[in-house]
Amino acid sequence: MDKTTTQIVDYAQSFSLEGDSEVVLDAALKHLVDTVMVAIAGYRSEPAAMAAAVSRRVRSDDGATVIGFGFQTSPDLAVFCNTIMVRTYDWNDGMQAKGGGHPSDMVSALLAVAELSHASGADLLMAVTLAYELLGGMGAEIGIGDLGLDQGTNMAVATALAAGKMWGFSESQLANAVSLALVPNIPLGASRWGTLSMMKGCATAFSMRNAMFGLIMAREGMTSAPEPYEGVYGLHNLTGPFEPRLPIFPGGPMVIQLSHQKPVPAETHGLGLLELVPEIRAFAHIDDIETITVDLPDHAVEHTADPPKYDPINRETADHSIPYMLAVALVDGGITLDSYTDERISDPLLRPIMKKIVCVADDEYSELRRTGLYGVTRPTPARVTVRTNAGDEWVREVMYYKGHYKNPMTREDIDAKFDIICDGFISGGQKQRIRGAWWNIAASDDVIDAMASIATFDAL
Amino acid sequence: MDNTSQQLVSYTREFGESSLPETIRHATVRHLVDSMGCAVAGFDSASAQVGVRLAKTVTSTAGATVFVDGVETSPEAAAFANTIMIRTWDWNDGMLAIGGGHPSDMIAAILAVGESVHSSGTEVLTAITLAYELLGALGSSAPVRNNGWDQGTFMGVATALAVSKLLGLTEEQMGNAASLAVVPNIPLRVTRTGSLSMWKGSATASAVRNAIFAAKMAAEGMTGPDEPFEGKTALWDQVTGPFEVSLPAYSDGRYVVQLAHFKQFPAETHSLAFVGFAPTILEFAPIDDIESIAIETYWHAWHEIGMHPSRWDPQTRETADHSLPYLLAVALVDGDVNLDSFLPKRYLDDALRPVMDKISITENSEYTALFRPKSSGITADPRSKIHVKTHSGRELIEELGYPRGHANNPMTDEDINVKLDSTCRRIVDAERKEQLRDAWWNVEKYSDIGEPIRTMVGVLGEGESTS
């Protein structure tokens, strides 16, 4: 084992939630419940159907549940399907570390291992909290995305450790699970640039499938490179040396508290802007608006207002396009999953509105985003200036959107989000059963009961 | 699609439209027969057994067979287990391109997918020939290993495209299969440095397993980045730098399947010439009389099997079969390198340490410069010098070149059959051995590849001793 592997394995082995305050457990529960809810939304997505079609051919007696589709398959395939469901609409949680990613992309793998090992709800919440802390601790030190690699790099490692711990792995099994998660499967950053493909919402599902397979292999005794970080041609060859910051803040808060949640399905940088839509609509009718200038940090302009985002051809590009999201919300009154249907995206009437929206990198905001980094969270400043044809002007600034660490979503907010997800899709009775099972997961002796509540959805 | 994807996909779609010449088909059959022998030998290895146990946990419609064991599982799981069997002893074929690897690591995946859709023997042969061609062309166009990445990088793409052809994917789906094989799965070369683990013989099995999955997802309509090679933070940016691939790999009509080398001994490629020279050394002097064996060789050999101190004290079999000091020492003491050479009691034997300590290895920059002339493509031009000195001061100095199995010193069909006897020794009984030998040499006559695959099942018997 090299130094980094030793450090993260030791941290995982000694990690415990005993004695931790209620706030950590409350945060873990909120993120777990929110993740299950967005997976239910993603069940109806196209990539989820594709993943299920491939996975359905494979059955396993000792398998894991594919959410909604109701069959059990090999754990790696179940993780692939379920991670796509969680992530595909970009409605799940996130963090803003140097090396980012959506930490709940890891939850499906933890659910699968919890199912296989008949873990209790408390074990699962421990593993979720640990996985977040590891991901944040690594992401705080290394900008995986800036290096041209993808989020799954660190996610696979964090998942391997948290899931391996829950599964009762020995120290050497944990080390091999780390190596097997990392060494065979470095994901390229290419999934996040230009016109986006389904891989925008599925890349981490591939990484999680790989991590799950690494776990299964390590459990069966497969050994892998003992120095995956510091060995010759190990990860440090790509990243340079770094030391994960574990925990991210001694004494707290933990990564799971700092990670943000999303009331609506939209890329993080757009969330604050979308909150302003009702006020903009009250100020002026869309036809009367001449321009909307949006000042943003440079990073946000680069990712959400580059040329392909002004003419989105698929939902993956649309939900990462500030011009699109703002335009469609101004016309329709807000953002829902219906905002991302092919029909809505290709609507020619939206193009002229998008053209009115000009995104500008603001130096002060760029600086604020950079220097305001606190562990895995940072300010997300945006200023909207609306000018009407008549010359009237309206200006607003937002700093912390609803769901940000400084403006957290409450349980009621999460329940309201679930109401939207279930609307016209899941019966009231089942909705209550799902809520009951997952909000009370901490008291459950075996996670399979809660998993059973989301195995299939009653027809309305 | 970027230019590189377009080029690979077009080549894949057009490949084999008119049937391949008999000499090429026969060259592919030779690699197939050799790989099946290696698989039999590899079945019992600890790492292949991990693959077999995992394969047994799933069942699948349109499934595939795990060699020897016979369980039917998903094509991915069968490909994983079977590729480890073929590769684990490092006895299978190879090539020496800058982005190289052992091309037969792709064979089990092609067989598994072929079995799942009932491809004919000829279709499978075509797909294997294609995969070799793609891997050879990519591997001689772009550096992978020198940049710190592993062989599976290009194997994933080549395998994804070859199995896409068997699955009948459209042009667009093939582009996505290539993208989905590359983008999520770039393997690190740390697997091959320092102390080696079971993963040394399993890493490419993981790559081809992922390639099948990529093709299946593409068949369902999943899309990947449309510029997986040339796009921002794609393969060129992150892994290889820009490169231009020319297909076919050789413009003079030769195919990669004709040039990829075979291995007589289960030992790392660069060691083969030395292991083959051991009898000459023993004729010259008994081991006890030898004071030193000084080897000068090209960088690749030195770096892979003669640089790291772990190679003089192998603690795992993966290190042992990638250690020139160990391989030469055991060849001198035992008179052969075979699978028994990689039992713990053999490589941990204290008595071998003093023999290994007689051996020193240095890089000779002239040989390094000669190793990969521009025209060599996937074969390379290995040259080394060995200098044996006895206590009494007698000297044996010899320049070593192409080992048996190199395209310029080829193994004959008869040699391949002799090797098959060796890989089956003490594993397969005589009758079953002849059945599988016959089936694979005549693979083209089968309308369903499942038939020859069935000769790989239930072969475990008393075996026969050929020694």
Biggest interface pair, residues each? Answer: A-B, 64 and 63 residues
Number of helices of chain B: 21
The strand line-up of the biggest sheet of chain B is: 5-4-6-7
Order of helices and strands of chain A: HHHEEEHHHHHHHHHHEHHHHHEHEEHHH
**Low-confidence spans of chain B: pLDDT under 50, at least 5 residues?**
none
Outline:
Chain A is α+β, with helices and mostly antiparallel strands and 460 residues long. Chain A has helices spanning 3-14, 22-42, 46-55, 75-87, 107-116, 121-139, 152-166, 171-182, 199-219, 236-239, 255-258, 268-275, 277-283, 298-304, 315-318, 322-332, 342-345, 350-356, 363-371, 411-422, 428-439, 448-452, and strands at residues 58-60, 64-65, 72-73, 289-296, 357-361, 382-388, 393-398. Chain B is built from 21 helices and seven strands.
Can you characterise this structure?
Chain A has 460 residues and is α+β, with helices and mostly antiparallel strands. Chain A is built from 22 helices and seven strands. Chain A has helices at 3-14, 22-42, 46-55, 75-87, 107-116, 121-139, 152-166, 171-182, 199-219, 236-239, 255-258, 268-275, 277-283, 298-304, 315-318, 322-332, 342-345, 350-356, 363-371, 411-422, 428-439, 448-452, and strands spanning 58-60, 64-65, 72-73, 289-296, 357-361, 382-388, 393-398. In chain A, a hairpin with a 6-residue loop joins β2 and β3 (72-73). Chain A is globular. Chain A starts with a helix and ends in an 8-residue tail after the last helix. The longest helix of chain B is centred in the N-terminal third of the chain and has 21 residues, at 22-42. In chain B, the strands form two sheets. Chain B has a four-stranded mixed sheet. In chain B, α7 (152-167) packs parallel to α9 (203-219). Classes of the chains: A alpha+beta (460), B alpha+beta (467). Chains A and B meet through α3, β1, α8 and α9 of A and α3, β1, α8, α9 and α10 of B.
Write the layout of secondary structure elements.
The complex is a heterodimer of chains A (460) and B (467).
Chain A: H1 3-14, H2 22-42, H3 46-55, E1 58-60, E2 64-65, E3 72-73, H4 75-87, H5 107-116, H6 121-139, H7 152-166, H8 171-182, H9 199-219, H10 236-239, H11 255-258, H12 268-275, H13 277-283, E4 289-296, H14 298-304, H15 315-318, H16 322-332, H17 342-345, H18 350-356, E5 357-361, H19 363-371, E6 382-388, E7 393-398, H20 411-422, H21 428-439, H22 448-452
Parallel strand pairs in A: 4-5
Antiparallel strand pairs in A: 2-3, 4-6, 6-7
Chain B: H1 3-14, H2 22-42, H3 46-56, E1 58-60, E2 64-65, E3 72-73, H4 75-87, H5 107-116, H6 121-139, H7 152-167, H8 171-182, H9 203-219, H10 235-240, H11 256-259, H12 272-284, E4 290-297, H13 299-305, H14 317-320, H15 324-334, H16 344-347, H17 352-357, E5 359-363, H18 365-371, E6 384-390, E7 395-400, H19 413-424, H20 430-441, H21 450-454
Parallel strand pairs in B: 4-5
Antiparallel strand pairs in B: 2-3, 4-6, 6-7
Helix pairs in contact in B: 1-8, 2-4, 2-6, 2-19, 3-4, 4-5, 4-9, 5-6, 5-7, 6-7, 7-8, 7-9, 8-9, 12-15
